[in-house]
Amino acid sequence: MTKLLRIVTLLLLAPAGAYCHTPDQPPHQMAVLGDLELEEGGAIPNLRMSYVTHGKLNSTKSNAILFLHDLGGNHHSGDHLIGPGKALDSDKYFIICVDELGNSQTTFEHSTSPTNSGLKMRFPHYKGRDQVNAGYRLVTQALRIPRLLAVTGVSSGADQAVQMAVSHPDFMEAIIPISGGALWTTDGVGFTGLALSVLESCSGWLGGNYEVNPVKCAADAMMIFVPYFYTREWWEQHIDTAGAYTKWRNTWGAHHFDLQDARDVYYRQVANSRGWVGDTPGFNGWPAALRSIKARALFLASPYDHFVPRQLYEIQVKMIPQGRISWVDSTAGHLVCCDADANATRAMSEAITAFLKELMAQKKDKN
Predict the structure, then answer these.
(1) For residue range 263-318, what is the model confidence (pLDDT) as tens digits?
(2) CA 356 to CA 345: how far, in whole Å?
(3) Domain coordinates of the chain in residue numbers?
């Protein structure tokens, strides 16, 4: 690989939007929502939800889209899809990018988490549906938007988009899960267990009651998932030397791995194993839950995703009454979600643009 090509390649490997804030971007906002009652009992006191918005809410409040980020990410995870003329066009739509309950990044004031609440390991354990309900409250109570045009998200944010359509079926016209959904391989569960083990056995963890964040512990736990980010073909093509891997690791570390709080990562990983669409109250398993979805659904995914194999996407689409999938043919695999392949981002953008155009036309016909 030539030096110039390697430089270009490494630039493309950076996390989407670099997960950081620049002066020209919308300001952070914070919603204060009171106590959040948890599904399994107890409550999170004084819930605060961090978010940013792009674009303008129209007079009928019919153009709002909620974006949900990935594990360890933040409200910048969708920056490659948001902006004038992009898939989530801020000249047409009002895009709400929320930092999930328990957000684990350390570089900005974010939504309530075990560490920033001051409760540390006394913080009550939450699950995915609690995160979904926190986002729902932000939109309906703080922003006073009763119904969304769409809910979208990447990776674990895609999971939450599906869960939101099950838990709050009349809250959106459509969902757009990207590289994720209700069904994952059992490897994901195994990785979660490994991540917890890494944290618990790490020097500096101190049972989670540390005063100084053990950054390396958190980074090592997050990196458990790295082998499944891309396909084997992608790794062999782009990370073909030890030096190339080091540069890739340092790039991601500067914007993701090395910006995590170990305690918040721990709680977030525990949440991965506490509830999913299949045990949503009121349903007898995931097939019934998915069949209950009223929203139109457009899944976007690579057929080579190691976390969610092709057949699991196809099963979900068949179960959801108005479900469809747009395949993104890329060896970037799971990370097509996050701007790892410019061609994949372009293909996804075209699919999202066409889908949202359909939704707006449908709403106009109804009115």
Answers:
(1) 999 999 999 888 899 999 999 999 999 999 999 999 999 999 999 999 999 999 99
(2) 16
(3) 23-184+278-366
C-alpha to C-alpha distance for 116 and 31, rounded to whole angstroms: 15
Gap between the Cα atoms of 116 and 105, Å rounded:
11
* HEC sequence for the chain: CCHHHHHHHHHHCCCHHHHCCCCCCCCCEEEECCCEECCCCCEECCCEEEEEEECCCCCCCCCEEEEECCCCCCCCCCHHHECCCCCECCCCCEEEEECCCCCCECCCCCCCCCCCCCCHHHCCCCCHHHHHHHHHHHHHHHCCCCCEEEEEEECHHHHHHHHHHHHCCCCEEEEEEECCCCCCCHHHHHHHHHHHHHHHCCCCCHHHCCCCCCHHHHHHHHHHHHHHCCCHHHHHHHCCCHHHHHHHHHHHHHHCHHHECHHHHHHHHHHHCCCCHHHCCCCCCHHHHHHCCCCEEEEEECCCCCCCCHHHHHHHHHHCCCEEEEECCCCCHHHHHHCCCHHHHHHHHHHHHHHHHHHHHHHHHHC
Cα 182 from Cα 320, distance rounded (Å): 11
Q: Which tokens hold the place of 290?
A: 């998915």
The answer to whether residue 342 scores a pLDDT higher than 50 is yes
* CATH number of this structure's domain 23-184+278-366, picked from the four choices 3.40.50.1820, 3.90.320.10, 3.40.50.790, 3.30.450.40: 3.40.50.1820
User: How far is 351 from 356, CA to CA, in rounded Å?
Assistant: 9
pTM: 0.94
- Residue 272's pLDDT is 87
Length of the chain: 367
Instruction: For residues 162 and 36, give the distance between their C-alpha atoms in angstroms, rounded to a whole number.
Output: 21
